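Lab notebook, design round three. We kept the backbone fixed and only want residue identities now. Task for the bench partner: fill in a sequence for the structure below.
Input structure tokens:
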């Protein structure tokens, strides 16, 4: 085996004692003087070619000088030479001796460390020198990784030396970690000041938009380069991906702050908001980046203080645009009404585009604004003007009803369909609206539905009045009297065409309830006197038959309010029963189901049965009061008797 050495034949694979105690003073003096005469810069590091650490027979070990290692950018090995020289120098003699007799070697060490530091920082500066396209060039990637890994290892080695010899005053600490961080900070700042220029797109962009987009593209490509190449050159504890992400985050943030200080055009304002809340988070959430970067720790690009004026500018613009759109749609409907036109009809259903168009505007703007603002709550503020529009819609309907023109019914039916659409959206897509906005709009829509129902049903009740008057009289028990009421009702149903299925069903259900209320009111206020069990049994059968006839008729027309039959059935049972305890139980059942049942209703019902005394009526009413107290009456889902005036 042959060994190639420098001119003095020195080898650098000696072992040092960090505590400063040598194997022998003579050995150290001899070695140190030779190092001093010939400079440890000329000391080589052996490179055995065998994998087990022992040279194979006939192999040649090449010894590289410090300068050669620097030239080859084998910075880690170069740092090991500096380490050995420092350990040899400061580990075997006092600092006073070093300054007195070996100042030349101390200065030489400092100079060599300075030369090494320069190359280490240069290697760090080249960390992002490749482009994403060059990742396919394996040789270029390998060279970069090799140089950077060596530089990082040298840096770590020097940090250890700083700790080992921190008590030696003549050796200034290198602080390469701080230099490394500041170098990367400068590198990132430089790249963000001179970002990649993207391809020229079809869409015309402002200079602000182009600058931000270029910085974003540079940020994305550089972070991908860090993950694909740079990360593997550092130890895991360095957390280099998050360090780079933080540097780029701060760099982009500082540039956006400067831009945000200016009065911006609306399109630039929107673009910045989208970058802060949509585009930038979208970049970091890409799987490759999200797996390596703690996105939550970065925070927002701009503070709330800086975002607030931008958000106000954006919301003002969007609010104005939404208001104009909604008002235009309503004005078109008002003009159509004023010109005597009827609403359009689709599948025999009167349609108005008002609800559909407004819902589309709101859905699109709130959904889009949520992305721009990064907050659904902030985007919901756009709907704050909706209650005012609903009030105008309500006033428009009131004018239609008041003027009662030839086309009024058609417009009211179209409005009912709109009301149903609005209510559906307010319930089904409640996330689009502020809570108070939703509540205010629903209240207005409820009033509109009630007034529309009243307008459409009032003529029906007027036509049915002669039949109503026969209820509760001696003619009531005659079947043909009630059949005339049913026939009149059937004829009225023909006038309810033009409504959507849900609106038609709701209107028919409302009519069903009002007819039942009228039936009960006429019965309780009538002059029928049921003197004995036979008459009371007959009255029970009549009410039962009437209840079933009404249910069948209204079910045929689409009503789902089957609960109304139950009321008449319970009343019929009271008419039939003879025992006071049984009557008490039936009244208690009716009161539990409908807590708006009052003492007057019970008293009027019992007065139909002339064989019940005043004292017995009092007992039954007392039972009702106890039932209402126990059930906690006052809040219930359905009302009926409160609308039956006695």
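Proposed sequence:
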């Amino acid at each position: 085996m042959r060994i190639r050495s420098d001119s003095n034949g020195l080898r650098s694979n000696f072992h040092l004692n960090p505590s400063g105690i040598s194997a022998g003073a003579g050995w150290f003096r001899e070695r140190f003087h030779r190092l001093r005469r010939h400079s440890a810069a000329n000391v080589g590091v052996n490179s055995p070619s065998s994998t087990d650490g022992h040279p194979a027979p006939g192999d040649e070990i090449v010894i590289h000088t410090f300068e050669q290692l620097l030239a080859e950018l084998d910075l880690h090995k170069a740092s090991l030479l500096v380490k050995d020289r420092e350990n040899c120098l400061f580990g075997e003699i006092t600092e006073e001796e070093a300054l007195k007799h070996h100042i030349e070697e101390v200065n030489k060490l400092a100079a060599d460390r300075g030369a090494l530091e320069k190359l280490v920082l240069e290697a760090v500066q080249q960390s992002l020198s490749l482009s994403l396209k060059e990742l396919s060039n394996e040789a270029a990637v390998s060279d970069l990784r090799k140089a950077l890994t060596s530089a990082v290892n040298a840096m770590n080695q020097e940090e250890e030396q700083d700790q080992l010899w921190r008590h030696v005053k003549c050796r200034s600490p290198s602080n390469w970690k701080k230099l490394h961080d500041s170098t990367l900070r400068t590198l990132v700042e430089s790249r963000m000041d001179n970002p990649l220029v993207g391809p020229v797109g079809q869409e015309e962009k402002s200079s602000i938009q182009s600058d931000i987009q270029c910085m974003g593209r540079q940020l994305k490509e550089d972070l991908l380069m860090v993950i694909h190449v740079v990360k593997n050159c550092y130890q895991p504890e360095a957390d280099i991906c998050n360090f780079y992400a933080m540097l780029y985050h701060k760099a982009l943030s500082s540039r956006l702050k400067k831009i945000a200080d200016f009065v911006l055009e609306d399109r630039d304002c929107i673009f910045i908001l989208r970058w802060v809340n949509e585009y930038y988070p979208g970049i970091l959430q890409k799987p490759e980046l999200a797996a390596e970067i703690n996105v939550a720790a970065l925070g927002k690009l701009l503070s709330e203080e800086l975002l607030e004026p931008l958000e106000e500018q954006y919301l003002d613009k969007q609010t104005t645009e939404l208001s104009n759109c909604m008002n235009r749609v309503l004005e078109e409907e008002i003009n159509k009404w004023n010109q005597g036109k009827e609403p359009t009809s689709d599948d025999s259903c009167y349609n108005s585009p008002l609800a559909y168009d407004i819902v589309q505007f709101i859905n699109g703007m709130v959904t889009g604004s949520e992305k721009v603002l990064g907050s659904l709550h902030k985007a919901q503020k756009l709907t704050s003007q909706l209650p005012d529009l609903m009030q105008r819609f309500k006033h428009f309907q009131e004018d239609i009803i008041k003027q009662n023109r030839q086309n009024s019914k058609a417009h009211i039916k179209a409005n009912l369909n709109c009301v149903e659409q609005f209510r559906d959206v307010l319930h089904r897509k409640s996330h689009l609206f502020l809570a108070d906005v939703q509540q205010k709009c629903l209240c207005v829509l409820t009033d509109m539905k009630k007034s529309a129902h009243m307008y459409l049903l009032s003529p029906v009740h007027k036509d049915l009045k002669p039949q109503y008057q026969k209820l509760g009289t001696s003619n009531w028990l005659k079947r043909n009297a009630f059949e005339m009421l049913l026939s009149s009702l059937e004829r009225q149903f023909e006038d309810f065409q033009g409504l959507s299925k849900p609106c038609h069903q709701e209107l028919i259900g409302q009519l069903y309830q009002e007819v039942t209320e009228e039936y009960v009111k006429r019965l309780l206020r009538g002059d029928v006197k049921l003197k004995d069990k036979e008459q009371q049994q007959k009255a029970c059968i009549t009410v039962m038959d009437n209840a079933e006839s009404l249910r069948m008729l209204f079910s045929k027309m689409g009503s789902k309010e089957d609960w109304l039959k139950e009321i008449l059935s319970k009343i019929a049972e009271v008419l039939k029963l003879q025992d006071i305890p049984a009557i008490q139980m039936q009244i208690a059942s009716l009161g539990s189901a409908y807590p708006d049942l009052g003492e007057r209703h019970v008293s009027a019902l019992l007065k139909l049965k002339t064989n019940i005394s005043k004292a017995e009526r009092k007992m039954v009413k007392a039972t009702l009061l106890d039932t209402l107290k126990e059930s906690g009456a006052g809040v219930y889902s359905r009302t009926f008797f409160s609308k039956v005036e006695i």
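Keep this in mind before ordering anything: The first strand starts at residue 2 and ends at 3.
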